């Protein structure tokens, strides 16, 4: 059984079909990427899998657990994490506090003011926060207010927040968007580290095709809500339907 499976996943918004019978399988330890033009349904697919949207039809299974109908924090407790395309940080808190709050909220469904009075919980989260910040490369900035970070560091903090849920499967939504070449290189190295050192399964949504072809084991291609192709980077690069729908079009 695959780690993640969707069967006939469909999502309609009024008369618009955003997802149309999507079937995917992701194996443990893989890095898979999802590509497609703007409006193809990429964010809708991730939101439906992670419980932020309920599908109109279809099923989602993670490690044998049916996810449809579960709340996002319940899905996070099963081992599914996510870093967001848009900023999800709390700018007035420090870098460390952002990761700590995310860790506790994932476990309990919300953050409680008395959390930092519970020494057992605090010590456990503190240790994990240290590991995450060191992995991400933000340990030297742990006491800085998150809102004062440079853009690239904010994006890396979003990944740290995703890791705070202790995921086995991590969704990364456009992690290099708006980054400089140097920041992008650092993020790609981080992705490799998460695979090699953390034993993580990664589901990547990324607009930079060079990155997608470099890091992916397999690639899924959405177009107008339908899965039109899946395969290795070489297979996707040479697929005529993909080239017409995305790679050879105006959007890269």
The third-level CATH topology of the largest domain is: Rossmann fold
Query: Number of folding domains?
Result: 2
Q: Walk across the major sheet and give the strand order.
A: 6-7-8-3-9-10
CATH homologous superfamily placement of the largest domain: P-loop containing nucleotide triphosphate hydrolases
Radius of gyration: 18 Å
N/C terminus separation? 34 Å
Q: What is the helical fraction, as a range of percent?
A: 25-40%
Look at the structure and give the mean pLDDT.
Answer: 89
- Unreliable stretches (pLDDT < 50, length at least 5) are 110-117
Using the alpha-carbon principal axes, give the shape.
globular
GO molecular function: ATP binding; ATP hydrolysis activity
InterPro entries: AAA+_ATPase, ABC_AA/LPS_Transport, ABC_transporter-like_ATP-bd, BCA_ABC_TP_C, P-loop_NTPase
Function: Probable component of a branched-chain amino-acid transport system.
Domain ABC transporter: 4-249
Notes on the structure:
The structure is a single chain. The protein has 252 residues and is of the alpha/beta class. The chain has 2 domains: 1-79 and 168-178 and 201-252, Rossmann fold; 86-166, no CATH class. Helix content is 39%, strand content 24%. It contains 9 helices and 10 strands. It has helices at residues 42-49, 72-78, 95-108, 119-136, 151-163, 181-198, 209-215, 233-237, 240-247; strands spanning 4-13, 16-26, 31-35, 57-62, 65-66, 80-83, 169-173, 201-205, 218-223, 226-231. The strands form 2 sheets. A 6-stranded mixed β-sheet has the order 6-7-8-3-9-10, with helices on both faces. This is Probable branched-chain amino acid transport ATP-binding protein LivG. It holds the Pfam family ABC_tran.
